[in-house]
Structures are given as structure tokens and as C-alpha cells.
TrEMBL record:
Pfam hit, one: Macro
Protein name: O-acetyl-ADP-ribose deacetylase
NCBIfam families associated with the record: PRK00431.1-6
All residue ranges annotated as the Macro domain in the record: 1-168
InterPro entries hit by this protein: Macro_dom
CDD domains linked to this entry: Macro_OAADPr_deacetylase
Lineage of the organism: Bacteria, Bacillati, Actinomycetota, Actinomycetes, Kitasatosporales
Amino acid sequence: MTTIRLVQGDITRETADAIVNAANSSLLGGGGVDGAIHRRGGPAILDACRDLRASHYGKGLPTGQAVATTAGNLDARWVIHTVGPVWSASEDRSALLASCYRESLRVADELGARTVAFPAISTGVYRWPMDDAARIATETVRDTPTSVEEVRFVLFDDRAYEAFAQQT
Ligand code: ADP
């Protein structure tokens, strides 16, 4: 059984085995939660991302996939980087958003992570409507078989917290 917990706050302040990053496909950092993770986690994360680019992801990490690095100075063992889809009004990209959660949990299982903290992937710069993103996130975690014991959604503001609370 996986327990789902909601907390409001800054994911870079969390203690967990793995912290999920809403990365972009370059893996070279960006704004939002990505920028915050690299700032607080320090240069070891970016170094590991550069190595991954060189070895496996020269064309970038595809949307919906996930990959792990060190967590640097964060209070975690790993950062799992996943690339959310950009919201589209004309195309249903829900399967890709669900894939971010499923693939992150798959990587967490491979690593042996028991506690995993997720941000609300795609709901910032990528503009996914919060209520819909919260539904996809919680449904996907509930429907994914995993050895992860605790999934913690770390919601940055009241609006995100309320949207996730509606789903649980
Ligand atoms: P994306 O490009 O996937 O939309 P963003 O980082 O722009 O990624 O936003 C994803 C979500 O993360 C947004 O809801 C944003 O408010 C939230 N967020 C930004 N900074 C943090 C943080 N430090 N901790 C947790 N969530 C954050």
C-alpha cells in the first residue's frame, strides 16, 4: 500500500529518498521548481545531468520519461528528473503527464526509494490547469503498482494544495 500525503511548501526543503524535478528535456536546468532544485542542490546535480546528456540523452530526455541523479546538497538520496508535457488546448497530452508519474515511480522502485516527493508537474511554465493536473497525478499514483511506501505531493501555493486536496 502506498500512502499519499499532501504538504504545502518548497520541495527543496523536504526530506525524502527521492525528490522529483519537473525538468525540461535539456536537463540543463530552468526556472520554477527546476531552478530551485539546482540552486539548493548545488552543482553536483548539474554535473550529473551533463553526464547523462553526454551518455544517453544527446537529443534531450523525451517528454514523459524519467531519470535519476544524485540529490547533491538536498536532504534526499536522489533527484528524479522527469519532463512534463506543455499544456495544449487542441491535443490531449494527459497520457504523457501520467507517464511522468508512472516512470518516476518506476525509477524510484529501481533505486529502492521508499519515500518520493513530487511537485505538481507541468502546472507552472507548462500551463497545465491545476485541477486536471491534480486529478491525473493522484489517479496515476493510485493506479501504479510500486514498492514506494509514501508519495508526498509538495504543493507550492494554496491553489495547488486545494486542487490536490479535492482529489484525496
Ligand atoms: P513546469 O515547467 O513542469 O510547468 P514549473 O516549475 O514551472 O514546471 O512548475 C511546476 C509547479 O511547481 C508549479 O505549480 C509551481 O508553482 C511549482 N513550484 C515552483 N517552485 C517550487 C518549489 N520550490 N517547490 C515546490 N513546487 C514548486
